Amino acid sequence: MLTRRHLLVTAATLPLAALGSHVARAATAPVFANKGIAINGYDPVAYFTKQTHLAGSDQHALDWNGAWWLFSSAETREMFANTPKAYAPQYGGYCAFAMAHGAIAKTAPDAWTVYEGKLYLNYSTVVRGQWSEDIPGNIKRADAHWPGILDK
Questions:
Q1: Largest Cα–Cα separation, the chain
Q2: 102-118 burial by CB neighbour count: b if 16+ within 10 A, else e?
Q3: pLDDT category, 27, cuts 50, 70, 90?
Q4: Cα–Cα distance between 16 and 61 in angstroms, integer?
Q5: 142 has a pLDDT exceeding 80
Q6: Chain centroid to CA 133
Q7: pLDDT at residue 69, as a whole number
Q8: Residue 148 CB partners (closer than 8 Å, separation 6+)
């Protein structure tokens, strides 16, 4: 049986419950990381210096922007440490094509593009092909979603 008191207590706790559910909802991490390791453990500097994807090593790890980044050498680790924004992938390493469409998706290390001095990663090489059809337009659309999409 509902009493007046029960109704008042329930009504008083509803705003707190709503606030609690809002606070408990975690935003998406700013860096694509699997088990805390950024971009699948690949060396972001190698995309620029070697023009390929190279696996990093935990011997050359660096904590940056909420994730551990792995590097293939002490040299590339140092390069990243000195200017991380020059080497970090755009959109936190999430798929650039998905971002252009207002979505967040993981990426594959072999699906990458360096365009105008910036690294863009994609979900797959097939998706990279779609991304490549209009890189400037896709960047413009993705930029409109980033980083606000992390809070959704």
A1: 73
A2: eebbbbbbebbbebeeb
A3: confident
A4: 42
A5: yes
A6: 22
A7: 98
A8: none
The residue written with tokens 């999409």 in the block is: 149
DSSP string, 52-81: S--B-EEEEEEEETTEEEEESSHHHHHHHH
| d(C-alpha 19, C-alpha 85), whole Å | 35
Q: Specify the pTM.
A: 0.82
Alpha carbon distances (Å) from 88 to 7, 18, 25, 52, 71: 54, 37, 27, 15, 12
Q: Which two tokens stand for residue 145?
A: 């979603």
User: Of the ranges 99-103, 124-128, 148-152, which one carries the lowest mean pLDDT score?
Assistant: 148-152
